[in-house]
From TrEMBL, chain B:
The keyword Nucleotide-binding does not apply. [Ni-4Fe-4S] cluster binds at residues 262, 297, 335, 448, 478, 528. Its EC number is 1.2.7.4. [4Fe-4S] cluster 1 binds at residues 38, 46. [4Fe-4S] cluster 2 binds at residues 47, 50, 55, 69. Its cofactor is [4Fe-4S] cluster. GO terms for molecular function: 4 iron, 4 sulfur cluster binding; anaerobic carbon-monoxide dehydrogenase activity; hydroxylamine reductase activity; nickel cation binding; peroxidase activity. This is Carbon monoxide dehydrogenase. It comes from Calderihabitans maritimus. The keyword Aminoacyl-tRNA synthetase does not apply. NCBIfam families: CO_DH_cata. GO terms for biological process: generation of precursor metabolites and energy; response to hydrogen peroxide. Keywords: 4Fe-4S, Iron, Iron-sulfur, Metal-binding, Nickel, Oxidoreductase.
Length: 191, 636
């Protein structure tokens, strides 16, 4: 049987040493999903809900967002199939989401946020809360070129969109170089 | 939110959990919610001076290194700092201007509820300002002093220095400052000048902007100095008085009125009237009548002059209301958290704003003016009594914490105490003890609390270390509040913490002054506007020794600094020649140039410099080292 080779998902890579905690990425993410600019969103009083969140641990600051897990626990747990894998993204179809919060419980990174859409008046039967998470800006991609709002917005380039394959290749090269250097220093030859 | 990190004040640690349980939000909660704070702002490298911005410089060197107009990190940091100094100077200038105008009104014979309490001091001031008061009617003297002070806000000739700056510093310092071009001729003009030169497209040379900042800081000094001295003329020179501090000073069976802010013009009248309206409060059911307490520097003002207890300092102002026992909080200007008005929702407290330029949504505004001060105060007290009737007893939680505090050490009071030791030459005992090393040096602690550090912890830790090293300590503002709350303004604290030789000196002076024991460990010199009282003493010592201020073993420290006023004060302390410690990293480190100038290069210009150290123990070591370096310089 022929096994079809699939590419692993891309993900957002963060360098916490560079992150200043300005939350620009949060703002960019939120306005990207609100589908308008910051000023308009603020003057119209639109709900802004970033899919990432900048957290502080001691004196380190970094944004946390969906890791685009390959064996995504959220997708496995979702009883309605709202979260699913497609084209190298862990996608979410908010229309099928019932806000049951199972995905939020199983996500090891706390990357899923369940919120009500205040722009959409709820009725007494349902509050219409939905799961929201980073889908690498899939919903706003209009070309094949993936570009993430947060990555574009980061003033210190602390975050980038990483292709797993090339990331791994780079890591291997670096580690290889280190090992080679270590050996060249010890020089245990056969003579 | 762990209590370990919030405060070392037991009253705060008692009330915060109660507030949390009741769902009442405090500054500590909002600080948590604010995290992470923006790194650009912390580094001082974001510019919002024009609407092309905000511009931010990437401190890692990958992103933009210049703002849209081309301003680099050095320019942006220097501009931001100079603007903070201008804002601080403006705050003190308004305060001083207000007091000077009131003195003018009195001088011109307008019927005001104010009078001159200290004729002798007024005449002394007139002499210092070269106004030849001899034989003149006191009203005339008041008018002339007021006009000479107001001249410092209106002089057009830039070559003539401000009266109050020129006459209160050593001659050599004045000469140096004039030479550097940083001597202000007009307080308001200097503030305006900073605003101009930091406007988009103006001064871009960081060092030049900083020099403008030094001038602004000296304008701040001038406004503060005249503020303090003229307030003394109107309301009395502080003298040592025994009182108490911390929230335990609130009384269950009294109408509790907290006076908060900075300007004594209204609070003094409220205090006067409270005595007269005591019966009315009793009629309303308050067995103990009216109990006035202070918060922040208005609190320090009435504490120094009247022995009114201090409820708390800046950071815990909200918690005063959380006790449920404050019936009215009367606020004037500066350092008032707008959140007070929201707390009013949970309690019966009347939050009353009094100044036309300082309103808070949700608060009751009762506009104050000098002519109607008596009626305003009467109305305020009535509101408080009415509120008392609405007080919900089940919500009252007065923490059982208060400490004794001996306060009121104006320069005059210190000299009076010293003159009991040597009537002919009061400064001699002080100077002799500095020279022989019994007193290693003098440290002045200036105000503020800041959530970035555990409340009051830096103050008390450094003070205990300096005491051990025989450093004589003075304090003002919320720093003084911290020491008062933690029992460091007592004779017992001197016994417990002072090094042997310092203890001996404080005991000799205290005994001579009739205190039946030593002077307190830290001398309360007043509100933050009163930092100039310490300069008054230092200049007297310098003149007597025939050296300039930058040679004296005197240091300053703002270990929990926060306000723009503090930035201005710290900068003038440096400009006058003092090594000045900051316990909070200032928002300038995004520019290596500005950082280097403020901590090193400036030493060559003015003798003073900033030392930044967030660890209080290490800060104490650095302060002692700076004092020792000065002693070596003097050969003592
Ligand atoms: S949301 Fe959480 S569990 Fe789901 S793919 Fe992302 S990281 Fe994995
Ligand atoms: S990739 Fe898109 S959704 Fe995810 S954090 Fe960035 S902007 Fe937000
Ligand atoms: S833009 Fe960069 S520094 Fe700012 S919050 Fe995002 S990742 Fe952090
Ligand atoms: S003044 Fe210059 S650096 Fe500042 S906001 Fe305007 S363009 Fe940006």
């Amino acid at each position: 049987m022929l096994v079809k080779k699939t590419k692993e998902n891309r993900f957002i890579y963060v360098d916490p040493r560079r992150c200043l905690g300005c939350r620009n990425c949060e703002l960019a993410c939120a306005t990207a999903y609100a589908d308008c600019d910051l000023q308009t969103a603020v003057t119209k009083g639109l709900q802004l809900q970033p899919r990432n969140s900048v957290v502080q641990v001691d004196d380190m600051v970094m944004p946390i967002q969906c890791r685009q897990c390959e064996d995504a626990p959220c997708a496995l747990a979702c009883p309605t199939g709202a979260i699913y894998q497609e084209d190298g993204f862990v996608k979410i179809n908010e229309g099928s989401c019932v806000g049951c919060k199972v995905c939020a419980m199983v996500c090891p990174f706390g990357a899923i946020i369940i919120t009500q859409d205040i722009n959409d008046n709820g009725n007494r039967r349902t509050k219409k809360a939905k799961a929201r998470k980073c889908d690498l800006c899939f919903s706003r991609q209009d070309s094949d070129e993936v570009s993430c709002a947060c990555v574009e917005a980061c003033p210190t380039k602390a975050i980038m969109l990483v292709d797993y394959e090339s990331y791994r290749k780079k890591i291997i090269e670096e580690r290889g170089k280190e090992l080679a250097r270590a050996h060249s220093k010890t020089k245990v030859g056969w003579k | 939110m762990s209590n370990m990190k919030t405060s070392i004040d037991p009253a705060v640690n008692y009330l915060l959990p109660l507030a949390q349980k009741a769902g009442i939000e405090t500054a500590w909660d909002r600080f948590e919610a604010m995290k992470p704070q923006c790194g650009f702002g912390e580094l001082g490298i974001c510019c919002r001076i024009c609407w092309k911005g905000p511009c931010r410089i990437d401190p890692f060197g990958n992103g933009p290194q210049k703002g849209i107009c081309g301003a680099d990190a050095d320019t942006i940091v220097a501009r931001n700092l100079a603007r903070m100094i201008a804002a601080g100077a403006a705050a003190h200038a308004e305060h001083g201007h207000h007091v000077a105008l009131t003195l003018l009104e009195i001088g011109e014979g307008h019927a005001l509820p104010y009078k001159i309490k200290e004729e002798k001091k007024l005449r002394n001031i007139a002499e210092r300002l070269n106004l030849n008061p001899e034989g003149k009617d006191i009203k005339q003297v008041a008018k002339e002093v007021a006009l000479a002070s107001l001249e410092d806000f209106s002089r057009q000739k830039s070559s003539i220095p401000c009266n109050w700056a020129k006459e209160t510093l050593t001659a050599s310092r004045v000469e140096k400052l004039v030479e550097l071009g940083v001597m202000p001729h007009n307080i308001h003009a200097t503030i305006a000048e900073i605003m101009h030169r930091t406007h988009v497209g103006c001064d871009a040379d960081a060092v030049n902007i900083l020099l403008g900042g030094l001038k602004g800081a000296l304008a701040d000094y001038t406004g503060m100095y005249l503020s303090t001295e003229l307030s003394d003329v109107l309301f009395g020179i502080p003298e040592p008085v025994v009182t108490a501090a911390n929230l335990g000073v609130l009384k269950e069976d009294a109408v509790n009125i907290a006076v908060h802010g900075h300007n004594p013009l209204l609070s003094e009248i409220v205090c006067d009237l409270a005595i007269k309206m005591n019966e009315e409060a009793k009629k309303a059911g308050a067995k103990e009548g009216i109990n006035i307490v202070g918060i922040c520097c208005t609190g320090n003002e009435v504490m120094m002059r009247r022995g009114i207890p201090l409820a708390t300092n800046y950071l815990s102002q909200e918690l005063a209301l959380v006790t449920g026992a404050v019936d009215a909080i009367v606020v004037d200007v500066q350092c008032i958290m707008p959140s007070l008005a929201a707390l009013k929702e949970c309690f019966h407290t009347e939050v009353i704003t009094t100044m036309p330029g300082n309103k808070i949504p949700g608060a009751t505004h009762l506009e104050f003016s000098e002519e109607t001060a008596l009626e305003n105060a009467a109305k305020i007290i009535k509101l408080a009594i009415d509120a008392y009737k609405r007080r919900d007893r089940s919500k009252v939680n007065i923490p059982d914490y208060k400490e004794t505090a001996i306060v009121g050490f104006s320069a005059e009071a210190v000299l009076a105490a010293l003159s009991k030791v040597n009537p002919e030459d009061p400064l001699k005992p002080l100077i002799d003890n500095i020279v022989n090393g019994n007193i290693l040096g003098i440290a002045l602690f200036a105000g503020c609390n800041n959530l970035r550090v555990t409340q009051d912890h830096n103050f008390t830790t450094i003070a205990k270390e300096l005491a051990r090293n025989n450093v004589l300590m003075l304090a003002t503002g919320c720093g003084a509040g911290a020491f008062a709350k933690h029992g460091l303004m007592t004779q017992e604290a001197t016994e417990a913490y002072a090094g042997d030789s310092l203890k001996e000196v404080l005991t000799v002076i205290g005994e001579a002054a009739g205190l039946n024991g030593p002077l307190p460990l830290v001398l309360h010199m007043g509100s933050c506007v009163d930092n100039t009282r310490a300069v008054n003493l230092a200049v007297a010592v310098a003149n007597k020794l025939g050296v300039d201020l930058d040679k004296l073993p005197v240091v300053a420290s703002a270990p929990e600094a926060m306000a723009e006023k503090a930035v201005a004060i710290g900068t003038w302390a440096v400009t006058l020649g003092l090594p000045t410690h900051l316990g909070i990293v200032p928002q300038v480190i995004g520019s290596p140039l500005v950082t280097e100038v403020l901590t090193e290069k400036i030493k060559d210009l003015v003798g003073g410099y900033f030392m930044v150290e967030t660890d209080p123990k290490k800060a104490a070591v650095k302060l002692v080292a700076a004092i020792k370096e000065r002693r070596e310089g003097l050969g003592i």
